[in-house]
């Protein structure tokens, strides 16, 4: 009985050991298979990092100012008798904009002309009498003075009537008129804005520490953030001779041709002044290649990696970088990427260190220094 029990225990131990050995081999094979498993490669686009030299620019926020701009006002008080302009219309220099009622002045002008005529007749009569020795010189001098006063009075009334005809002082585009027919206007009351838009100024402030970077004649360009098609190139034409004591900035003015009338007075624009053509060498990549994390910015560099089984494959490694300025679609990398390295430019949000990738550059993300998007 005891012998039989021992045999049964030995047999059971052998069976358990065999089952354990089989399971051990199965688990080991599963672990090896899991370690050798590679997820399918992620599709990415790439760009080869190359060294560039960007223009060194000074950027600032500027304000568009009309080269010639006024709010046309009434010179004398009166009632609006006629409006000969439309809001938003183009006006030539000297065009009549508004006529004030001049009936009273015209009546006074008629009286002044009658008085002038009488004074001229009296002067002519006394001139004849003086030649005959009948009239005294004092009477002739009095008549001459009265004739001149009458002529001056006529010219005065003509000037008053002319001043009640409000004209455009220069060619430009009218704004929204601020008076109506039959309205009484006071002297100095605004009638309509007038802006000459063919040429505009852009004023912007530069810190006194950067004054040496700007000079008259330097090229500059402006653009409006978020608005497509509004951009222009011009040159610096003036630098203020006084520094603002409250801000320690100096005002710089650029001049731009604006035949399209896209730049309007009062508009805020982004001004960029070219300081020098060639700066320090940098590595530039598309902005879409940059990923951000609390510990810093990084990119994924495509390289030849070794898998768990020792086989080589094309994958990515994470590389922390130090960023510089950005221009258009591109960002300067000051440190972290070497020239000639291949950097992933799209799909970076789904990558991780060691991930396999499949490069397909048929469609590339934007990578222009001066992009001109068709749609905003």
User: Structural class from helices and strands?
Assistant: alpha+beta
Large-scale geometry: rod-shaped
**Biggest pleated sheet:** 8 strands, antiparallel
How large is the count of helical segments?
A: 3
| Oligomeric state of shown chains | single chain
DSSP helix fraction: 10-25%
Along the chain, the helix and strand elements come as HEEEEEEEHHEEEEEEEEEEEEEEE
Distance between the termini: 95 Å
Radius of gyration: 43 Å
How many β-strands, per DSSP? 22
Sheet-strand content, in percent, reads 35-45%
Task: Tell me the domain tally.
Answer: 3
Calculate the mean pLDDT score and round it: 83
Unreliable segments of 5+ consecutive residues: none
Write up what this structure looks like.
This protein has three domains: 58-67 and 196-276, Beta Barrel (Elongation Factor Tu (Ef-tu), domain 3), CATH 2.40.30; 74-185, no CATH class; 280-359, conserved putative lor/sdh protein from methanococcus maripaludis s2 fold, CATH 2.40.420. It is 24% helix and 40% strand. It has helices at 2-36, 103-131, 137-163; strands spanning 42-44, 46-48, 51-53, 56-73, 78-83, 90-91, 96-100, 165-167, 172-174, 184-185, 190-207, 219-223, 231-243, 249-257, 268-276, 281-286, 291-293, 296-306, 312-327, 330-335, 342-344, 357-359. A hairpin with a 7-residue loop joins strand 12 (219-223) and strand 13 (231-243). The radius of gyration is 43 Å and the shape is rod-shaped. The relative contact order is 0.18.
């Amino acid at each position: 009985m005891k012998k039989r029990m021992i045999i049964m225990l030995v047999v059971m131990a052998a069976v358990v050991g065999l089952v354990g050995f089989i399971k051990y081999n199965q688990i080991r094979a599963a672990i090896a298979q899991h370690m050798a498993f590679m997820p399918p490669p992620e599709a990415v686009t790439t760009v080869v990092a190359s060294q560039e030299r960007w223009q060194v620019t000074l950027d600032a926020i500027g304000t568009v100012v009309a080269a010639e701009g006024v709010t046309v006002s009434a010179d004398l008080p009166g009632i609006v008798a006629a409006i000969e302009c439309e809001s938003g219309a183009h006006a030539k220099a000297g065009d009549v904009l508004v006529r004030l009622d001049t009936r009273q002045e015209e009546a006074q002008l008629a009286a002044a002309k009658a008085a002038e005529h009488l004074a001229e007749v009296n002067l002519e009569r006394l001139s004849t009498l003086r030649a005959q020795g009948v009239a005294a010189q004092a009477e002739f001098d009095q008549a001459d003075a009265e004739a001149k006063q009458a002529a001056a009075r006529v010219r005065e009334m003509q000037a008053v009537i002319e001043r009640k005809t409000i004209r455009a002082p220069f060619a430009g585009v009218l704004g929204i008129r601020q008076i109506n027919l039959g309205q009484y206007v006071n002297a100095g009351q605004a009638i309509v804005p007038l802006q000459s838009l063919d040429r505009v100024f852009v004023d912007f402030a530069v810190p006194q520490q950067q004054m040496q970077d700007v000079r008259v004649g330097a090229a500059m360009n402006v653009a409006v953030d978020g608005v497509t098609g509004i951009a222009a190139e011009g040159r610096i034409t003036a630098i203020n001779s006084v520094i603002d004591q409250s801000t320690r900035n100096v005002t710089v003015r650029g001049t731009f041709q604006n035949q399209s009338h896209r730049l309007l007075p009062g508009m805020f624009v982004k001004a960029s002044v070219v300081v020098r053509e060639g700066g320090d060498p940098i590595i530039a990549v598309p902005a879409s290649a940059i990923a951000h994390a609390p510990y810093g910015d990084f990119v994924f560099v495509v390289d030849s990696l070794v898998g768990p089984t020792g086989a080589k494959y094309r994958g990515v490694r994470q590389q922390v970088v130090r960023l510089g300025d950005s221009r258009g679609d591109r960002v300067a990398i000051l440190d972290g990427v070497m020239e000639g390295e291949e950097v992933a430019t799209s799909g970076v949000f789904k990558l991780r260190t060691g991930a396999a990738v499949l490069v397909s550059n048929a469609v590339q993300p934007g990578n222009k220094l001066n992009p001109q998007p068709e749609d905003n």
